[in-house]
Amino acid sequence: MINHTNKIAEMLERTGKDVGATKQVYVGGEQFEFCSATVSRRMMEADPHAMVMCPYIVSVYTIPNDKNVYISYRKPAPPRIRR
How far apart are CA 27 and CA 9, in angstroms? Predict the structure, then answer.
């Protein structure tokens, strides 16, 4: 289930003038936040410090003058091993 959608391209377009920006960064770009109870529990049982990885975020975006659609995400780090 998607918890939240961040409209990053729209935000940058809307606030660009306020910060003196003139370059269009994205043609379209959104982030989708979600959480998986099963995956999150396993990840945090393995490493309680992995809480920072939740919610998971997938970004989908396009760049000016580029016909590709990009999808990106944060790759979780391997669990810490304590001795």
Answer: 7
